[in-house]
User: Fold these one by one.
Assistant:
Number 1:
Amino acid sequence: MHKAACIIAARASQVGLRARNSRNSPVSLNKEQVQRIATLARLKLADEEAAETVQKLSRIVAFVDQLSQANTDNVTPMAHPLNASQRLRADVVTELDDRDHVQENAAAVQDGLYLVPKVIE
Amino acid sequence: MAQDLHLLTLTQIAASLRNGDFSACEITDLLLRRIEASDASLNAFITVTADQALATAKRADETRAAGKAGALNGLPLAHKDIFCTRDVLTSCGSHMLDNFVAPYDATVVERFANAGAVMLGKTNMDEFAMGSSNETSFFGPVHNPWDLERTPGGSSGGSSAAVAARLAPAATGTDTGGSIRQPAALTGTVGLKPTYGRVSRYGMIAFASSLDQAGVITRSAEDAALLLGVMAGFDARDSTCIDHPVPDYVAGLSTSLNGLRVGIVRQHFDAGLDGQTALAVKAALAVLEEQGAILSEVDLPNLDLSVPTYYVVAPAECSSNLSRFDGVRFGHRASDPKDLFDLYCRSRGEGFGAEVKRRIMTGTYVLSAGYYDAYYLKAQQVRQLIADDFRKAFADVDVIAGPTAPTPAFKLGDKTDDPITMYLNDIYTIGANLAGLPAISTPCGFVAGLPVGLHLVGPPWGEEALLRCAHQYQLQTDWHLACPEAYR
Amino acid sequence: MKPAWEVVIGLEVHTQLATRSKIFSGAATEYGAAPNTQACLVDLGYPGVLPVLNEEVVRMACKFGLAVNATVAERSVFARKNYFYPDLPKGYQISQYELPIVKHGELFIQGDDGSDKRIGITRAHLEEDAGKSIHEGLQQFSGIDLNRAGTPLLEIVSEPDLRSAKEAVAYMRKIHSIVRYLGISDGNMQEGSFRCDANVSVRPRGQDTLGTRAELKNLNSFRFVEKAINFEVQRQIELIEDGGTVVQETRLYDSDKDETRSMRSKEEANDYRYFPDPDLLPVEIEKSFIDSVRASLPELPDAKQQRFVNEYALKPDDADILTLSRALADYFEAAAAAGSASAQVVANWVLGDLAAALNRDGLEIENSRVTAADLAGLVDRIADDTISGKIAKEVFEIMWKRGGSESPTIPVPAGQLSLAGQIIKELDLEQISDTSAIEAVVDEVIAANPSQVADYQSGKEKLFGFFVGKVMQQTGGKANPGQVNAILKARLSK
């Protein structure tokens, strides 16, 4: 059994996404689940968007659910299509300061800092 | 000077520039005028870099006069707006990045520039490359030069339309599930997606990292070979790019197809494929056979699962890749956020279009607690099975041939209601992305006045065989020479 | 703490690796640069850029693994931990999840009962650090500085084998010592390059299952680790004894108030959606690489401690302290080699007057104002009876003030004289060992204090110290104390 999955499964209830327990049950998502996913993904959905999203996401999830038919016992999940491994770079400083140029794309900057609404810890 | 320079292929332009028939400035100027004239009808470009193009062309002419011309000196081309271009708007077809000026060049852009190519502009595309019809672009859909009511395909639809309408002899594209090959098929152009790791992804805005690969849309296999030779090769800035020798792709084109083993996948011709399209593809296979290719059937038993596999893996990766667009360092930022959460949710909610949001949400769902095993892990396992199927098939054949898309170009608006119908458009092309294989689409006929593409897939690093096969086919046929009437 | 409760602690130590460039980019890692000037496009999570792994980071993790007798994984995988936070530019942190680079290690500390205690190391994995949020002086905003983003971290996770705050500190010190020995981290706690989280729970003694734990975040000094754990243990016990239950949560230690408090805001609805990072490939480490790293390992604290006991005949406890830091051990060895006095005496000086002076001035041993050679010169003058131990302390203080033999305050005449020798000569501090001279002073003292002599001789032996004091006073403290004692004894018993 996949270790990550165990750990992740243990957290399922915390997020409120109910894991499937039956392969036969039709897969679909309700509005509340979709809202929870949107929150996790930090996406604000307009009201008219929300209903359509529930319907289309349910369609997609039901569609990809056909994967459950495949027999994947003892199959190693793919890491890289050509089974390559990670190459290492030498520990050398190659990047020079380009802050002012790069910060031209930022909407709010002060004294070289990127600004966000106050973060409360 | 001839009046129809725009009809020349890249290879022909290169020869003419060498001969001094015309200058880089002349051809660049001509194409810029064509782009401007067609803009209202096609919407193929998001940005036209006219001044920069003319300046580069002028430099290319000077370089040539000084006898120091690079491989692509003075050759005009367009870049898909997914490639970062220094100090030029790089929008990725999204409202999220409609104010984003990249501070650096993508490796592909840099390599073409170093070889002397002239960038005409940045082509329109589905938002963040998510789409098969170019209708998800924030900048509006691109129209197919063969029928303005139809799609030029997607996501590299701006590139395919620009090449088909002779606005640019070549354009770059990216292909995550068919985004180069399907638009090529739908516009009667040539689309090449190289082996995963053949071309650097550095500077190409990521959709699905393990599937994305840069390639080109051209009017001939010869042109694709010329460009691949420049863009391919190791890049230390991309860990997934592989250090593998780059052959002379152009030199490899002339070998005949005698003895080439071509595999046909039976399922490709089952229900779902338009009958007329099937006939065109079968006729193309007969041409290959006449040239000495040996046809045989191959079995890819898990291919049916390729679309669902793709629609787990790609959204999962995209949901994470697109998290960086948060309104802080670049991109759209919501006005007057009341707190951090609001800043994130509104910047992203406003900045991304509906399809991108759907994919982010699909990806978030399949990776979330309790679902990872059933979807993401499972999909990566099925992906391995699909790759194994291809591996076994390539023990017996050199290339696998079939249709690129199930139908010719459909009408804009026809498939926007149901995402699954749209997704199934990529049914023949997705396998190559899942397995990391090179593939090419070349024009092979018309159905009701709309182009049809022949799809060829090769084993890893099999670009030479694909290009040769397409080139030899093009020597026997003239489908690739057909030009939409309004753009002759 | 009531003995009915057993405390169970596991530590996660975050060690910043001392590389020149970041873990996945070529930006510099130096501390203290102006905001965002050491954050390149990769660190900023710019569209299109990609991570490439720093070789030195892999070597360092490998070193640590070998040093704690762990398995260095032939194949490890980087994963993305997805969550939104302003100091996390990509919206995910690249870390290792299922397949870390180091697993199943161990080290030994002195347990609460005084014996050697094995502490298991579950794993050590590589990850990138986040940036920093700055709240001061920006009104309704927070400012984000991403200079630290992408700095390499090795997160070392212990088994829940620690049973007290004291053991936790001993474990943390041991890790600190090892990473500094290996040269893989500067261990600087002020700059945040060595910090830890503690998982703390309590259970009735004798119970097998673990109690519910609280995770204490970001403890950046040994003292805070101890105080935070002690506070938390007390809180949990009191809570349970009052009929409450401990909730699994993240708590922040507030050093000003000396308490831990819940950080519920950050805990809310976290679902990290870990998956292998498709921009990075599995890291495969060949045996030859591991062998070359093994060959480059320095002598580690435990081995050095053992050697100091065997080779220098040091007390084991002294050897323990001397080997806590490689620099201190090197200093001791240099001093012991430079002089002819017994190594234990040198050790006493290093751990006594030298340690006190360093502590007083807030200096590290690397910046000691008395060099190892000068300390050896001083100790030798005691051994050869040139000065007494008491005078030596004065000489040491003068040496400390003058600051090393390179100091130009004394014109050094050519010759063999050590710095201590020069000071002794200059200030005329040489010990009086001439018997007749001491006898003369003793006689004077006896003659001048007849009543004390009578009292002493009638049994008030405590007065002996009075006579020693008088003799020392008259000789300016320079008389050889052994001789003074012997002569006084002889004269007074007459």
Note: The mean pLDDT of chain B is 96.
Number 2:
Amino acid sequence: MLLYTLQRLLQSVAVLFAVSIAVFLAVYSVGNPVDLLISPEATQAERAAMIAKMGLDQPVWAQYFTFLGNALQGDMGTSFVHGIPALQLILSRMPATFELVVLALLLASAIGIPIGLWVGLRDGSRGARMVMTSSILGYSIPSFWKGMVLILVFAVWLNWLPASGRGDTVLLLGVPFSFLTFDGLSHLAMPVINLAIPNLALMIRLTAAGASEAVHQDYVLFARAKGVRSKRIIRRHILRNILIPIITVLGVEFGALIAFSTITETVFAWPGMGKLLITSIYQLDRPVVVAYVMLITFIFVVVNLLVDFAYAALDPRVKLVENM
Amino acid sequence: MTDQIKPSPVLDVRGLQTVFHDTQGAWPAVDGIDLTLYPGEVLGLVGESGSGKSVAGFSVMGLIDPPGEITAGEVLFRGEDLRKKSEEELRRIRGIALAMIFQNPLSTLNPVLRIGEQMTEVLSEHGHDDSAAAASLAVESLRKVGIPAPEQRIHQYPHELSGGMRQRVAIAIALLGDPAVIIADEPTTALDVTIQGQIIAELQKLQAESGAGMIWITHDLGVVAELADRIAVMYAGNIVEMGPTDAVLDHPRHPYTLGLLDSVPGDTVPGAPLRQVPGNAPPLSQRPLGCPFHPRCASASDICRRDMPERETDAFGRSYLCHHPVSQKVDP
């Protein structure tokens, strides 16, 4: 187990290295930030001095090695735009995104898994078919449109919920969170729902598919022949078996939402990481974009490792074996 | 069983009919069968695939799901009709007084739960609250079915056991509640031949010790010849012949039983072609009029194509459904 973990972490270093090259080259080829950062009135001398200060006069490989050297010491560069370390900038935005994503996934699972079970165990009934059909809708309506409709209905027409921002935050372990204040919750409501809807649909479909397959397995019939109550059959026999794909998808979704909740964060002006990414790309703020992608890669690696651990914990047939 | 005054049957099935619905209508997989089972007796329920023998077993358990439906008959278990009981009343009987063993031990145990939990849940779900006592009962039951080191087994998962071991676990689960009736649905079909023999011997011994009545569902005449007191032969949803094992196997009256016996390789001269019952069992939706066996029967006549035969019972307590029963051979 320990060996396995170490091996996986070593692999992740290789992945991070590969990603760093790819993203560095990609960002380099996108455009020159100098034109955006230096005022048009600057003299040629000022311009050259600025370029030299930022190290942009160096060839690309030299820039990369400077970056790599600094990165290995934990310095992912300084934001061109904000003038503070890129990593610090991203991490300061992380709690906002984190609470948004965790609440959205909790909401999606808490509602989606029971509904999915209900649908899967009533395979083919009218109600079940209706839920399955509407779940396709929930999955395929674009996020930005859904977000705008939510704002239109709950903020503009009904005036129940604020349309943008985080609201009041409370420090928890030194980190600001919105979900502990009423005002913060009212700000969270719409972006959380917007993020939760496609995941709710996904959870319903995933759970329903698993349950409708599991319910016809011999072990379920055998449990019934043993006189086990249907409540226990569902909870212990069926859910235990279908939790494995659900956990996998939740892990992937968690990583993806932390990284790319950009649309929801933009629509609701939620000051999270996704919004930062979009802004940084527009402003050609290279260090932030590079650090962002590196951080996301790292999060994905960690999430995948955790999913593997969950796998081994849930399915006794899975053994985590290091390959030498 | 001797000819003393028989005790009352522990299971008495009368006119049981189970149909399967599809868009064209309702097709009877079990078409009004009568079965009796006495305490301590083994009844062999024999038939080809699709004859309805497994459906009959599941119907007795009350485990028929849509599109299947039990449409008629009584299932008298210790004198009470199970069909009149609520699902909750049935649940309390299942697993304790009325137990079942399935065909494929590789799929009957839940892969993600420990053996111990899959055993003790039978007890806890039937009001047995003492979990330590339940665990020791589980260990005891595993020991009874010949599983070595049962104290360790209860902490293991099904995939850590071989197929034969898993079937022993399933048997141990069935025996936990000291059942009055065990329905064994082809419990050895999925196992290696060597393991089959062990499991048959084990089950036979345990059943005799416990005094439970057992219905052994199989397509294997060799198996029932070994262990059944009585045999019921099923064809196309009907019990076409039923009686004491020796009488049915030595002097079959129904042409189908005779055909089945002839297709057992044991008695054939090596090299000679194996005789078989011509044709195939009709699918559920294409059962012929009259006697369902007539398209495959050498002695079929017009009446067979028109009328379902009445049940005849002879002096040996053997009954059959046939217009032209096989003539009684004279013992050599």
Note: The mean pLDDT of chain A is 86.
Number 3:
Amino acid sequence: MFPKYKRLYFFTGKGGVGKTSFALALTKFLQKEGVNVAYFNFDQTQPKKLISLLKVPTINQTTEESAAIYIQNKLGSKTIANWILKTTFFKSLLNITPSIGYMISLGHIINRLEEDPSLTIVIDAPASGHTLSLFNSTHNFREMFKVGPLVEDIHKMHNFLEKSENIKVCILCLPNIMNVQEALELKKGLSSLKLFEGNLILNELLAGLNHNELEALPNFLREKISIEQNLKKQYEKDFTEVVPFLSSTDYADIVTSLINMMRTIA
Amino acid sequence: MIKQTILIKQLEIFCGTGGVGKTTLATSRALFLGSKGKKVLLITIDPAKRLKQILNIKDQNAGKVENISSNLFTGFEENNFSISALLMSPKETLRKILKADTIDNNVLNILTRPHGGMNEILSLIEVQFHIESGKYDTIILDTPPGKHFIDFLQSSRKISDFFDSSFVEIFKFLGKPIIYPKGPAQKPTKKLLGKLISTGIKKLLKYLDQVTGEKFVQDFIEAVSILYQNKAPFLEALELEKQLRTFEFCNWFLVTSVEQSKLQEAAEFQSHTETFHKSNFFFLINKSLENHIKEWDIPSKGSSLGKESREKLASLKESMISKEEKTIKFAKTQFSQFIIFPEIIDANPVKHVGDLSKTWKNN
């Protein structure tokens, strides 16, 4: 049977576009569909209150923990792995080259998916620039190491990421020109890595008002909407999905109402 | 809501969560200072480089200081001036550190690519170079979003750890001498051997050899030696970090926006900067629609609009008012100084920058 859902979802885009809301909503949606799913925040800045309020299943794994498990598997010893992590050398190395941390965390996620074929992970990814650094990290280190077991592991990671049945990368974007440009650049940047294509999702503001209601809006909002509609028209062919933006001061409300819209995105 | 006119400092740092308008506000500040006759350099660290879109800078010019004429913006017609702008390029920064046209080491070359992840770590050094050049009255720094700002704040400490003396001495012992201008590398002393055993670096490198191949370990050791020979700028950046905390030297602007309810994150940001001087710390509330909402009248009963529609609009208005109020209340309780910037309703980012610089004029 062809699997209904992907194994790995990424939500990225400029700051404030709704990465966390979408990632949480998709996790909840998949959970309701009976999928064994977990939310993972790549920058390890989880919205703890919201997660406990909505009972979102999560993976909590720091880069250091991922590194320890990886080294342990490579060298076959937990003691050595823990010792390596405690050395000044390794700590400084991890600190000064954040891209090593990116690669280790990504590798760990893929490992988990390979070990447990029933598992799906939804990733709340960093903002655009840092998501590019994240996906560039494996390419950069492959070029640096050239040969050896680490390069083989990078190939394994790429094999997983290359299969379109495994992964969906969603680039969220709000209807303003700074957002759209950043999203298009990110899509191009990801595409150049030749692993997968990103899907542009427009988070449309103030949707759901009928003609009469729009007419009754004050000038500043009509102007705002007209700017957004023009932009939407101009970039229509670039968006794979348009989702209405839900305005509320309650974060949990936003996520809950988004859950029902996740069927098309999943 | 500020206690006195904002004093112009040598360094002004814009930080905050993503998408709130850090780059736009930083650019508007640069233009405002430029219009007052100050020599300003605007630097963006975020690898997403949104600044290029506002200032029309090409990607391939990252790392080079560009001259931006005030003609690009509206509202500065009466006096013509220019500001300088720079998109951070880790490779260019490293070239300055090494005083070299090319970087011969494989590891350093790859890591300093545009998305190699080294932006934050090298940014203080870039700032240091421009402060020392003496060319600018003020340097404005547009920092990366979210947790990556914290990386920037901690970069000096991380660099200092990296140059931990025991760590570097050990490389000398491994027979990959750090080449000093005069004389050969020193032989390791007994004390050093003690250190070597306690840190176990040799064993660690042997493990590294097993998984990465010998060539990489050689390249890596060479990379560390190169950096160590050129460590002066790194250590100077540590001094700069101390200065960031002083009132005389630096202004901090924490940006948030009304449309995003990310006040919790703003509070977390503040907790990271708590050791800094309070009187040079400003909370900027961007994209306020307060003035617009005041003038918004929901059609009354008896108008052509049905009850359901009227309620829908009323609740929209209510939620917008509540966002404004929530943000202002947060500002009043958490920050001693805050400034409100209006949302500029225009498709063109350049127009936003010009209009926003008016708010600086009043503060």
Note: The mean pLDDT of chain A is 91.
Number 4:
Amino acid sequence: MSLLEVKDLQVRVEEREILHGLSLTVNPGQVHAIMGPNGSGKSTLSHVIAGKPGYEVTGGQILFKGEDLLEMAPNERAAKGVFLAFQYPVEIPGVTTWNFLHAALNAQRKARGEDEISSPAFLKKVREVAKSLNIPQDMLKRGVNVGFSGGEKKRNEILQMALFEPAVCILDEMDSGLDIDALRIAADGVNALRSPERAMVVITHYQRLLNYIVPDVVHVMSKGRVVKSGGKELALELEESGYAQFEDAA
Amino acid sequence: MNVVAKTETGRALGDAFAVVRDRLPGKGKIADQRQQAFEAYERSGLPHRRIEDWKYTDLRALMREVLPLAPAPDAAALDRATAAIKLRAIDGVRRLVLVDGAFAADLSDLGSLEKGLSVRPLREVLDAGDAALSAQAFASDISNPMIALNGAMATDGVVIDIADGTVLTRPLHIVHVASGTAPVAMFTRSLLRLGRDTGVTLVESYLAGEGAKAYQTHDGLIVAIGDNARLDHVRLVEDSVDAFNISSATVTLGAHAHFNTFGLTSGGHVSRYQLTVTCAGEGSKVETNGVNLINGKQHADTTLFLDHAVPHCASREIFRAVVDDRAHSVFQGRIIVRPDAQKTDAKMMTRALLLSDDAEADNKPELEIFADDVTCGHGATTGALDESLLFYMRARGLPEKEAQALLIQAFVGEAIETIVSDALRDVAIATAQRWLEARA
């Protein structure tokens, strides 16, 4: 069974249709890249998969392991194994990263009927993951993302991805705002999480990111639809010819 | 006398005062002062919205009447009070208990008082005719009708004296308990005098015994902080959700004195806390912080009046209100900087978080500055929880209420963190936690 199946998805925001029948099938172990120009609906797709309020689904469906994802609250989706790495991770003053991650992990475990993880066990786990991502300990004691640089915020997203061990990771414009070194660290973190059971959907404007996270499948989105799919060479082709050719096709 | 403003209940109260007058402690001059205070109250009656200070808290509409005086607690009442105290016991404090407006020696920790500490019930002090203390007890400004009423009717309280040079490590904890189911009123007034070079922590709690509902607590606290002395004060209002709590505190600071106070109101149907602080000695420092956590139809009003009377004093206020359902939070903060009070450093920040469309928060900061070389500032904000933060947290697996709870804790945390004692900060955090769990 496919892990994530988006079928003929139609989405509106305030009377304006953004997605006009988008379909996408993601199987375990695969990395899919979704490319497309500004306004093609890439971020809308990621938000609707994660359950962000404010979007009206007027048609189609999203199945996760065969279950109707659209019927679930955002936190239920997270507990089932859907993870969205935000393009712009928010800052939460007064809530320490450490506290937030512990509460979130336990909420997910509780929702799945698993035992809560104790503070010492959590501390050990989070330290290991943080170390592997080169995240200093004191960042965990600070408010979530408060005063973090762009690179630190993205690393914090990957830290969470590693901690929650989701089945599907959606990475929304992970490369935005990162210099080349920060991008490499983030990409290494993502690559370390690739596994035969896990799938990733990498949303990006630029081919550059895909040099570091090499996709199995590349989709081109334009005007709310997938207009072309192919192998990783499609990304290189786009880099040369641009998106203009697809604007007309859409 | 303004006959128009006088309500039926006002007359009933007048009769009641005549009845109870002889039961109130203190004779002679004190009885005269009570009479004057009562007359001052009677001239205005319960304050209402046309009086600027009471604009948001119209007691004529909210409270309507002053209830009859509570009877002295019997054995059953003391048992119910004991049970209520046990539920909210704080470790390591010296507990001083007032049940239904009467000092309960048997429930209080009066053994082995530290050297330099004196604790006496107000009733005893007044009956003994201690002129100096009695004068202090009735020195309050009777132009505020509720302070006047409190003075006229006060049945008991605690009189605490800290001798010069005494630093107490064990906090004092005044616990007010309403024991019974009858709708009655309690009137208490306490005095705290800190001598020079002293230090003490005072906790005040307001609790309800099981079954206690629509009672009224009318409390007054008069504090004098001597030169170079420090008072840390934590006040927790956990009255029953049908109760009324009208309290006033008047605090005067000597030179280089320090007053740090934190109040948390989560209980009571209608509460009003009037805090008047006067920096009377140069170099004194005041931190007044507070949190309201209210829901249902609760109404909680904190009205602060901070008087910078002399130069080189500093004051800080951090106030946070979290308002759910149809509740109504009021914060009035008035800072006055007198002409001589140069080099005053005063800052006030008040923020309200509305959790429902019907919730209301009124923030009224007022600065009156008559000196020209000062640093003063204030800010007030009101808003809802940030949806983008909530979505982020939910996308990480936190159910909505849990995500809200974390954000609310962070919101009130900045005020709670001002409590110096780790143990008392934990008590305040636990109180906030209980409120959050109850709404989950």
Note: Chain B has one domain: 8-384.
